[in-house]
Amino acid sequence: MEPHRNITVDDYAILRLPSGARKMIQLRIEGVINMGKFGTFNVEDVLGYPYGQAFEIGVENKVSPIESLEVGITDLAELDTDELVSGSSKDNRLLIDGANVQKLTVEEIEEMKNKMGGNEVAREIIQTMIKNHGSFDKKTAYSQEKYLDRKHKKFLRRFSINYMTSNEMLDYLYYEKEPFRIMNLSIEMLGSMMSFGNVMPGGNYLVVDETGGLVVYAMLERMGNRGTITLLHENDQPSVHLLNKTRYAKEISTSPESMVQCINVLQFLEPEAERPDFKPLDEEEYKKLPEPMRTQYDRKLKRFHITNKVLDRVIENDFESLIYVSTLNPTTFVPKILPRLRGSSPLVIYNQYKEALIELNHIFLREKGILLPNIHHSVVRKYQTIPGRIHPLMTSRSDGGYILTGIKVFPIENVVAVGRGSKKRKIAKANESSEDSPSEKIGETKSEESKASEILEATEEVLI
């Protein structure tokens, strides 16, 4: 299913402002989007433009497309003010930034905003504020740039509409909304999960997702239109309210051929005992049903086929990967899921707390059914740079959760691994033999050759 390239009616999208603030919107026909102090615009005025297009709100809330959010922004060289003729200060030692430095009042700024719209009002307000600023010329050039940048973000009446990919959705929920609703999952950890889980087109995946369908959405984007996802949940219905806002909403158990099939925990653990108690009617019996009962029967028959197909998939024990993002204790629940995976299947268990994964990691190391269990954590820090200096932003987040990864294997009992030994041991034996007589060396050489031949024969038998 290809994404819409142009802004389409009823789509959910991410509205981005020059300040970096974002808002999730639905583009309903004849709808009006309110951006607070930046104004409003009609949805009809932006329909048909490509996603990512930037717009500017002019007089009477008229929307016009522009090249980008940054185009035409005033910089220091363009400002026609006497304050900038003398340049800037080398440092901020003489800077006194108090409440009375700005002589322009709030009422005067609001009056200017009502006179004109778009980039003109931002330019006029910024120039007037600089003229009435008592210590702007005492700022360093870098401080002046930061001052202008803040004012642009505050007064520019611009916005862009971006397609709501899984990355855009996660970034919005993580920074703008309540991240605990998605278990503090960061965009870095989501990418790591897709990589360690080997998510690709044509796969057959088992997923436990309690982020509202966000993880499933990221997997569907990566899989294209090929493959299957079995969504395991603990309630009567899975929580997929975020997935319902995407183009994959129709892929959730709407037919036996849907990419996403849902199953609860009881059906998963006891698939044979949880077969639906339903007997299809033959053609003659079906024709005798009145019209309202036919509709009800068709609905039950469809659910019967969907449930049977997903139960058959569970019984096959042929899942290629496990993606686990849940508040259920992984130490007790994950071992019950593992028998349904095929050999060499990667597994990724996410939790926002490392302590919840440590105990499960110890179980994997002790039982030797999981190869290379490891706990990962990744944080991408944003940095602010100027010539000669660099430092991270002080408002960055450091959480994002942890993932436990591994590969399912079938250990073979009563098999002893045979190797060549360490290099240090060989050197020590060579030094000891050099001190012995030549006859002893010859005897030891023959005995070592015989031992080596025996080891090679034993190795060949094990490999066979």
TrEMBL record:
Its main location: nucleus. Residues 438-454 have a biased composition (Basic and acidic residues). It is found in: Nucleus. GO terms for cellular component: nucleus; tRNA (m1A) methyltransferase complex. Keywords: Nucleus, tRNA processing. One of its GO terms (biological process) is tRNA methylation. InterPro entries: TRM6. Residues 426-464 are annotated as: Disordered. Belongs to the TRM6/GCD10 family. Heterotetramer. Substrate-binding subunit of tRNA (adenine-N1-)-methyltransferase, which catalyzes the formation of N1-methyladenine at position 58 (m1A58) in initiator methionyl-tRNA. This is tRNA (adenine(58)-N(1))-methyltransferase non-catalytic subunit TRM6.
